[in-house]
Amino acid sequence: MRALVYHGPGESSWDTAPDPGIEDAADAIVRVDTTTICGTDLHILEGDVPEVRPGTVLGHEAVGEVVEVGGGVRAIRPGDRVLVSCISACGRCRFCRQAMYGQCRGGGGWVLGHLINGTQAEYVRVPFAEMSTYPLMGGMGDEAAVLLADILPTAYEVGVLKGGVRPGDTVVVVGAGPIGLAAILTAQLYSPGRIVAVDLAPARMEAAKQLGADVVADAAQGPEQLVDDLTDGLGADVAIEAVGVPESFELCTRVVRPGGRVANIGVHGRSATLHLEDLWIKDVTISTGLVDTYSTPDLLRMVAAGRLQVSSLVTHAFGFDRIKDAYDVFSHPADTAALKVALHREPSHESLLPQP
């Protein structure tokens, strides 16, 4: 098969790779029809995730068709169209029994494109397939469905739910990339009083407004004063970090109010300073986390019912053979206005989609 293979920091290639096979009775082999690129993949290429070994196929999000299952798999079968989750779950360990699938100690967790070969390929082996795939309804398109593999549950669980968004809250989302925009979308399920989006790219700030942000702010122009003015000097009830750099995390800790919550979603490759000399007296709660994907079934139903309009998050689409072009587009959003980039098995899907 063809696959995107990681060769070390800054190096990857669209290569011929061995076809995956069943290695365990709980496995399934899925023909990948649509995959996508995540900000975490960029962190891997920057060398921020040293656990990824050279030779690994990247990617942890996919929609496709089951072509083979192990002897222990009963809930899905060849021919089924499924969503492949970014998190695999053994279903038996202590953490899986608490629905903390991201912390699975039975061989799951975030393994695809991290510890084992991933989804940016023509085929992928999915471990613990019954717990790690979701059957898809016929009416849901691939580009909407693939967003449920990672960014929607990540933004919802690690940002909105861990941040404890409540009716009337002022929510500041730092970073209006795909994860930040998904946080803006899902925060609205809890009727916050206002949502403030902070970014550097004008196209992403415009996307944030169209997806529900009430106010947008340029990160380079001191958004602390804007938040102060909007809240009569109190600060944000919830600050969601959706970038993964020290400056964005530290900004969240500056704009949050006493008794507020900082929810860190971003993948950090460098240390951030925790200013306890300022925070210790403010009763601030800081949460971090890897997504568990326990919310995926609920989010699937909401997208299918039209309660979450996600189609505008996908701005560009390519055939698999142009995956290097797709990475270039995705990694330069200030120039390309890219949000989420879809990669399709069929080149006929290739297009530049309408901008949000």
UniProtKB/TrEMBL annotation:
Pfam (any one): ADH_N
Alcohol dehydrogenase-like C-terminal domain span: 178-302
Keywords, in A-Z order: Metal-binding, Oxidoreductase, Zinc
Gene3D superfamilies in UniProt: Medium-chain alcohol dehydrogenases, catalytic domain (3.90.180.10), NAD(P)-binding Rossmann-like Domain (3.40.50.720)
Organism domain of life: Bacteria
InterPro entries assigned to the protein according to its UniProt record, in alphabetical order: ADH-like_C, ADH-like_N, ADH_Zn_CS, GroES-like_sf, NAD(P)-bd_dom_sf
Domain Alcohol dehydrogenase-like N-terminal: from-to ranges: 26-130
Swiss-Prot/TrEMBL cofactor(s): Zn(2+)
Homology family: Belongs to the zinc-containing alcohol dehydrogenase family.
PANTHER family: NADP-DEPENDENT ISOPROPANOL DEHYDROGENASE, ZINC-TYPE ALCOHOL DEHYDROGENASE-LIKE
UniProt name for this protein: Alcohol dehydrogenase catalytic domain-containing protein
Lineage, broadest ranks: Bacteria, Bacillati, Actinomycetota, Actinomycetes, Kitasatosporales
